[in-house]
Amino acid sequence: MKFLFEAEDCIVGVIVGLILIGLSGKFFPLPEWNILWGL
What we know:
The structure is a single chain. This protein has one domain. It starts with a helix and ends with a helix. It has 2 helices and no strands. By secondary structure, the chain is mostly helical. Keywords: Membrane, Transmembrane, Transmembrane helix.
């Protein structure tokens, strides 16, 4: 159970990191889905 929690935390961290990198626009642009990103 602890392993599942750590794996989920890692996945969330990767997703948040990709969103932050995409928002900075340095590596790759995110699609203009303002509703999805909540901007």
